[in-house]
Amino acid sequence: MFAKEDLLGLKDVVDWPYLLSSLEFQKINIQTRRCCCLIHNGTNPTSFSWVDNYFYCFSCLKSGDAFELVQIIKGFNFIESVKYLSDLFGYRIRKVSNYQKKVKTEEWEIPEYIINRINRQNFAAIQIKEEISKIETARENLTNVLISMRKNEEKYSGLESSIESRLNDLDSDLRILTYYLHHYEKN
Q1: What CA–CA distance (Å, rounded) separates 146 from 101?
Q2: Phi/psi of residue 67, each to 5°?
């Protein structure tokens, strides 16, 4: 019923963390590619794993591809799971009867999931920039206070180390946020 190339293409565009999140899986760890298994309502955050367009649960021993996962979780048949995934990721699936019609590349739209991912990244970058700005302002203010305190050393000797410690914390936060900002702007 569906063109094989389109089904393979749809499997390739599946963003597993986004799919699992939309299916309400819990404790999704993108780095380790692990989470709790919703199939058996497990609570072990490392039992469910996904690699190369396939999943496997080490607890309930279920495995398969994205189509099978949607069928299991949603109770869909294969056709319904294809429609669910194509809608979720904005991927157009052709039926075999229309297979011979060639679609020009420029007629394809940018899939919605890509637009959503870009928007999430841009929003995160904006939030990080705002936080960096707040930290820089706080750091500048604390530095000015510290300079003023050092002029009147005898009055504020106990607070100086506290402010220096806070400045170190702010520097650390600034380095971390700058790293994440670089990551989001690079992607």
Answers
A1: 72
A2: -60, -45
Residue-level pLDDT, tens digit, the chain, 187 residues: 677 788 888 888 888 888 998 898 999 888 888 999 988 988 898 889 988 888 998 888 888 899 999 999 999 998 899 989 888 888 887 766 543 444 444 445 667 776 666 666 667 777 888 889 999 999 999 898 888 877 776 666 667 888 888 899 899 888 888 887 777 666 5
Yes or no: say if 89 and 141 are a contact pair by the CB < 8 Å rule: no
Provide the CB-side half-sphere exposure for 80 (13 A, CA).
9
pTM for this entry: 0.51
Range list of H helices, the chain: 4-13, 16-22, 66-74, 78-89, 112-151, 157-186
* DSSP state letter for 35: E
